[in-house]
Amino acid sequence: MTTTFDTDRGNGGETHQHVSEKGPHDGVNHLTTNQGIRITDNQNSLRAGERGPTLLEDFVLREKIFHFDHERIPERIVHARGSAAHGYFELYDSLSDITKADLFQRAGERTPVFTRFSTVAGGAGSVDTPRDVRGFAVKFYTKEGNWDLVGNNIPVFFIQDAMKFPDLVHAVKMEADRAFPQAASAHDTFWDWASLMPETTHMLMWAMSDRTLPRSVRMMQGFGVHTFRLVDTDGKSTFVKFHWRPKLGIQSTLWDEALKLQAADNDFHRRDLWEAISSGNFPEWELGLQLFDQEFADAQPYDVLDATKIIPEEVLPLRMVGRMVLDRNPDNFFAETEQVAYCPANIVPGIDFTNDPLLQGRLFSYLDTQKSRLGTANFHQLPINAPKCPVMNFQRDGQMQMSVPKGRANYEPNSLSSDGEAGGPRECPVTGFGTFEGGTSQGEKGNKLRVRAELFADHYSQARLFWRSQQPSEQAHIASSFVFELSKVGLKQVPPRMVANLRNVDEDLARRVADGLAIILPEKNPAAREPVDMESSPALSIHANMMDTLQGRKVGILIADGSDAAALKTLQEAIKDAGGQSFVVAPKIGGAKLSDGKQMKAEGQLLGSPSQLFDAVVVLLSEDGAKHLIKEGAAIQWLMDAFGHLKAIGYTAAAQPLLEKAGIEADDGVVPLDQSFVEIAKKRYWQREPKLRLLA
Ligand code: HDD
User: Fold this and answer.
1) What class is the 463-540 domain?
2) What is the pTM of this model?
3) Which of 205, 238, 320, 509 is deepest in the core (most CB within 10 A)?
4) Which of this chain's residues are annotated to bind heme (predicted)?
5) Is 118 a pocket residue for ligand 1 (Cβ < 6 Å)?
6) Which residues are the active-site residues?
7) Hey, which CATH number is domain 554-692, 3.40.50.880, 1.20.810.10, 1.10.287.70, 3.60.40.10?
């Protein structure tokens, strides 16, 4: 047998694949070992005799098992579960008036990005829809190096100082001795800690709201959270807060819906993102900036360096500066989504940090954690982390060094170039990253102190602002979430302590939570600093701002034998025209024989496609179909859940008995199926909720 070598293989990085290269002579993909040796048999290990012992000599088996044994790496200590996609950021207009950052200079220019969305508390294998904050991390591969904007879908954070981060994470993760609950804050240790930390209150209001139950990562806002700086060519700094606004608007699920989604599809968000991108419905967000100066900062009743505070949009409107489009799914989950290493310290000239003590701690933590997660200080060389601009320095060696630097120049200064050798790169005093030198307003210099600035002591004004900016339907959800979460707490001292804090936010909220828990309203916990009343901010409400649209949303259509073929076609077209997606569900995946005698294949089987997977539903049944399905509990449950989750329901006359059996009462969202249904399907029917649920 002739041995041939595949010369373009085995030089590391993306060409190091086992089965994708073509053999040089016969056009076949050859299976090889990691050393490039072709494998004759991938089914049987080498043994002495047909039934004899396996031989140690079998390097093919040993290598295969050895590599498999080492496939896993430590998961992220937080944000372990996530999904990501490639895309680009496109600038609307030049921002050269406020920053010299290269990606913000030329209108229309696109910068590649890789964006990862995550839950915080659960492990990598946990579900997508727990009540949890969502990470929103964007890596911009700019021409002047990588800039990582590592944010969340909530504009504030639990704590003010990085010193408390390990405590927060220990408290919220599964409890130390029993290792449960997974991916949930509804347990003793979290609320014990949170109730002792009044600075968490504002974030808790957001966490208990529908913000932590997003319908899709495509329908979440993103926030850089901290105040950063933009710096122009003259060295002038402007404070900035970064906001991502989803093109599809913000949309959330209900708590009961989110719970049932966990059962219906653990990967609900991951699948949704993947399918949207692979079907060409590219998710999009606009980048908005809140820009301000020191004078503005000094005039606010809160400290802009405090990550538990927002600047209401009504006070400081957003300047929309560009859009991010995610248009390509990862090729490989591990190589990209798992190995991507974000770090708030990855910053480019023209953007800079502030003294926010939470941000300052983050600047250390991320670089540090990547070493533990990815195993080597060379993780920046992984394709997903590598900048798309030249990287040249005198750092050398280390585990898994992938680059092969040439010559002797591994120190600086050197004079090697004067002898005709390469001397290596040199400093860039003008174009290099220059830290902003100003920032000596009040309290920004002085003795070394372990203290917080005075205004950080106001823990309640903005929690109150958030509460007052919510619609009654949202307030009911917040109060009910507090009740639910605290009802899971076994430590007797904790719920009263939490309610005592909430009395500083709003007396009505505190009373509702106390009632829901059947505890006596405790004394108010004295506030470290008396809250002030701020003008409410309608922009903080989801329900008030929800878009009436089918874009990015899915309508489930239940059919059975005899369903009207023409009506189904018309409905599907109308949904498509409105930018939505229809999904046909039938008792059997093979589908149903429609009124025209043709077999229509279903996209989902009824038992595997509960109505929580959809934004609106239609029961498109004939008399026969309805007679059959009225005996199917899953069909009745399908309707009950759609109704309970405040969704639009369209039905044919024949399907009416099913609605009755499901206890559905007519309202604006429950309508006989006709042309107008797509309009009805664009909304959620919040007004239905008080009739269905005893909320706090
Ligand atoms: Fe963090 C991951 C967001 C505070 C320490 N964080 C991580 C991720 C996001 C955030 C989105 C996942 C990135 C990815 O997809 O890989 N973190 C935030 C936000 C914060 C915040 C918005 C407050 C404004 N984080 C924060 C503090 C510390 C950390 C105060 C520590 C002092 N965060 C980490 C970490 C992680 C992380 C331990 C875990 C995995 C990783 O970094 O890469 O370093």
Assistant:
1) mainly alpha
2) 0.95
3) 205
4) 76, 116, 165, 362, 366, 373
5) yes
6) 79, 152
7) 3.40.50.880
